[in-house]
Design goal:
The chain is mainly alpha-helical. The protein contains three helices and no strands. The chain is rod-shaped.
């Protein structure tokens, strides 16, 4: 009973097929966001690494 009420409140549907469809869409959106965010973070760290060889402030902070 409680799970049915929870599904209805969260997904606004009583149909198990609609619930599965919504769940698949949410998981797909989460995967897309994760890939985009990870790519952006990877490019940021590569930029910082490359910049560390040419920027004077990074050079002064680097260990000998």
């Amino acid at each position: 009973m409680f799970s049915q009420v929870l599904k209805t409140l969260l997904f606004m549907t009583d149909s198990p097929e609609d619930t599965r469809k919504i769940r698949r869409q949410v998981l797909a959106d989460n995967r897309k966001f994760t890939v985009v965010w990870s790519s952006a973070e990877l490019f940021y760290w590569i930029y910082c690494f490359v910049k560390s060889f040419f920027d004077e402030a990074f050079t002064r902070c680097r260990d000998a």
